[in-house]
């Protein structure tokens, strides 16, 4: 394993499970000095923190609800106090319409679901980044922000109307933050395709025709399967590392080739 994150003080949101957990543990394995594991779920977050420690970094859990701006600012403050600064802010937490309501389609989508999805996927990223900016600008350890967007922020997705719109907004926010925080802080985003995490599996469980939807989710992958969380974590850690020192304002697909074509074989 490389040491390309050597010395970095990292904060990962949504790190209790899925890709967030993979990113937190991989950051530690790649030499991060510390990882703050932020999430809503205390037990799973503590499990991630233990895995981070086993991989060689200091770890602290910060419980924060990203729909609450006070919690978001406290999350940054507690992470900085624990680690003595902040070099890498990874906005991984995200939420999809189907987690918040049954039968989440365009006709049934509720306003409260739209608002929660946008609050977690977009507004929280802005508030956390704004509050973290002074610490990141002060960092002498290659500071950067890495955002988890989605291929759904580029292409339309069935039954995820608010989610797709929020990820498109996050792509734009990434570019605007790259401009605003230059030259001190790099800001990039990656776009996962369908990745085998609890979010994807719960989404599959929420639809009527599981088989059809699974084929729909992975059918456009030129690498013909679900992606693994670690395959995405590799890219997140690269973007956070000094190996990506000339990379900012970029949007990187980690999607098995989904965005390369129209998904139909002749
Ligand atoms: N799984 C996929 O196929 C896929 C595809 C494209 C993009 N993504 C994106 O990747 C990221 C990670 O996805 P995942 O599949 O690992 O998700 P997941 O649902 O398995 O994990 C998300 C984590 O975020 C946390 N979270 C949710 N709402 C929160 C809130 N209000 N406050 C604090 N924490 C909160 C959850 O507790 C959970 O631990 C998300 O941004 C998601 O949108 C996932």
Give an account of the 3D structure.
The chain is an alpha/beta fold. The chain has one domain (9-253): NAD(P)-binding Rossmann-like Domain (Rossmann fold, 3-Layer(aba) Sandwich), CATH 3.40.50. 46% of the residues lie in helices and 14% in strands. It contains nine helices and seven strands. The protein has helices at 18-29, 42-54, 69-83, 97-100, 111-138, 161-180, 198-206, 210-219, 229-240; strands at residues 9-13, 34-39, 58-63, 88-91, 144-148, 186-192, 251-254. Strand 1, helix 1 and strand 2 form a beta-alpha-beta unit. Helix 1 (18-29) packs across helix 9 (229-240) and helix 3 packs parallel to helix 5 (111-138). It is globular, with a radius of gyration of 17 Å. The chain binds nicotinamide-adenine-dinucleotide. Nicotinamide-adenine-dinucleotide is lined by residues 14, 16-20, 39-41, 64-67, 92-95, 120, 148, 150, 192, 194-195, 197-200.
Name some characteristics of this structure:
binds nicotinamide-adenine-dinucleotide, Rossmann fold, alpha/beta, seven-stranded parallel sheet, 46% helix, globular, 266 residues
């Amino acid at each position: 394993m490389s040491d390309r994150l050597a010395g970095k003080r990292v904060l990962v949101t949504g790190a209790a499970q899925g890709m967030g957990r993979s990113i937190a543990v991989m950051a530690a394995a790649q030499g991060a000095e510390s990882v703050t594991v932020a999430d809503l779920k205390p037990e799973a977050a503590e499990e991630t923190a233990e895995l981070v420690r086993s991989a060689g970094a200091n770890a602290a859990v910060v419980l924060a609800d990203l729909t609450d701006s006070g919690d978001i600012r406290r999350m940054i403050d507690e992470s900085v106090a624990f680690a003595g600064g902040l070099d890498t802010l990874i906005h991984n937490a995200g939420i999809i319409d189907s987690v918040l309501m049954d039968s989440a389609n365009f006709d049934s989508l509720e306003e409260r679901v739209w608002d929660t999805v946008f609050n977690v996927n977009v507004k929280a990223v802005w508030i956390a980044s704004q509050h973290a900016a002074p610490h990141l600008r002060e960092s002498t350890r290659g500071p950067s922000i890495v955002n988890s967007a989605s291929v759904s922020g580029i292409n339309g997705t069935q039954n995820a109307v608010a989610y797709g719109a929020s990820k498109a907004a996050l792509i734009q926010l990434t570019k605007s933050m790259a401009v605003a925080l230059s030259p001190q802080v790099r800001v990039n985003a990656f776009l996962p395709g369908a990745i085998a995490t609890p979010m994807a599996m719960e989404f599959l469980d929420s639809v009527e025709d599981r088989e059809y939807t699974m084929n729909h989710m992975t059918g456009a992958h030129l690498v013909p399967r679900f992606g693994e969380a670690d395959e995405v974590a590799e890219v997140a850690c690269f973007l956070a590392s000094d190996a990506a020192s000339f990379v900012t304002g970029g949007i990187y697909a980690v999607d098995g080739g989904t965005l390369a074509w129209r998904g139909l074989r002749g």
